[in-house]
Each structure stands twice: as structure tokens, then as C-alpha cells.
Design a protein that fits this description.
binds copper (II) ion, 19 strands, elongated, 5-stranded mixed beta sheet, 2 domains, Immunoglobulin-like, 287 residues, mainly beta
Amino acid sequence: MGLMKTKAISSIFVLFAIAAGMASMAPNAFADHSEVAIVTVDESGFSQSCVDSGCYTPVTATVDVGGVVTMTNTDPTGVHTFTSGTVDGFAPSPDGTFDSSVLMSGDAFEWIPENAGEQPYYCMLHTWMIGTIIVQEAAAEETVDDHGDDHGDDVAEDIELMVMISDSQVMGGTQVELEFNVLHVNYDLTATQNGEVVFEETGLHSMENIATHQIDAVGSDENPIDVEVVSLGIGAPDNEDEWTGPVGQVTTAQVVPEFGTIAMMVLAVAIISIVAVTAKSRVVPRF
Ligand SMILES: [Cu+2]
């Protein structure tokens, strides 16, 4: 197996967001996830008419690890439970993570998640009532008040995303390894050679710090492979509204052969970004 050196070309840009405008345009982007409240939909025990819109409000809730989830039976007409696990058809499978047991109307139950991940739950009395709690690392979202005051009216998220691209030649192709400084990076990956696209995938998600992709091409001096990673945001793949971190940050590397060197490049960019503003416009200036 030969090693090739990756010649780094960095293309860095910073998206500045004006926080005041953002706060009004995208309040969810700054949501505090140290606590979340989930309630039952009224009369959700009587009929299944709530299923389409969700029998819990919100039907998908997001909270930080160590945050507090308060689940309340606000339905004046019935008793309900919040029981962790899944329902297949009408057959429930409790997973033992939490169980409020039967809550009378007005009663509440608290759960403090210890691990990141998706936690489904349901009502054991009405198994059409299902919901999801997304537990995220608290560090995945930090709010920074860069004016140093306590008013919280000028809040910007300031998450640094670092992408390291390395490559190795394997089995007649090229294996590209991406290393991220954070978990749950969503990104597009494109590789071109000689003006032709040899790899293109959008909406990729890296659960771990490292993701590898196989490209069916080998770079050479005459025909190097250009690899481009464009960040889409940080967060659970099916929860784009809650993504944080830089959007449109471009990291590139060029794969050309060179003996005896382990390929590696580092790009570090600090970006102030707001998902709600930038996620909608994927066309980003590059310079
Ligand atoms: Cu119920």
C-alpha cells in the first residue's frame, strides 16, 4: 500500500451573522436545551386522531445530556404514561430507560438523560402515542454572548469546526479519511479529477470523529484528485432545524502521489454561523 501526500489548499471563509437579526429570524437556533417540557395532547387517549400531528407536544424534543426533561400529563380527560421504548404495531417494547408510570391529569415526571442519542417513548395505555427525545452533547451547542453583558440579546453561536483530510491508496482506489473535532458533522463530499466528478455525495453524516470514503480513482501528478468537504451543520441528521456550527465552510485537499510521507493536512476555521440563516442558501462565496 503506497502512501500519498495530500497537498493542502485551504479555502477559508467566515460567515458573520448579526445576532440581533438572527434572534428574531431564528429563535430556535438559540434554543436552550438544558431543559425541555413535553406535554400530552388533549384527548389523545380517546382517539387516534392525534397520530398525524403528534400525540405529544413537542413530538420531537431536544435536550442536552444532563438536562431536565419534564413530562406532564396536561390532558384533562385521561391518564397517560411516558415510557421509554418503542411500539411495533400496538405491541410496546419498553427499554427500561425511564417510565413515569400512570400519571393522573396534572401530574408530571422528570428524567435527566445521561447519554447522547435518540430516545423513543410512548404511552403504555395508548400505544399510538409515541414521541422522541433527542439527547445531544451539551458541548454541541454553546451560546456566546460576545458583548459580555447578561442581557442575552446579542447571542451568537461560535463553534469551531476543524476538518482534517488524509488519504491512502488502497485496492486501486483512494481512501479518504476525514477527521472532525466534533461529533455529528453533516457535510457534502465531492472529489473531482481532470474536471470529472469521481465522487459526489451530499447530506453525509459522521456520527464519530472519523469518517472514511472510498473513491474509485487514483491521483497522479498529471491528474490530481481534488477533494472538497462542505459543512452543512452539526447535529442529528434528521433534525436539521436544530443544527449548529458552520454552514458552507469549505475544506479542500489535493491528492497527488508522493513517497514516504503520511498525508495529512489541517484546516482550522473559527466560524460564527447560524444555521437557520445560512442553511437555506447553500451558495456561499468562496475566496
Ligand atoms: Cu396515554
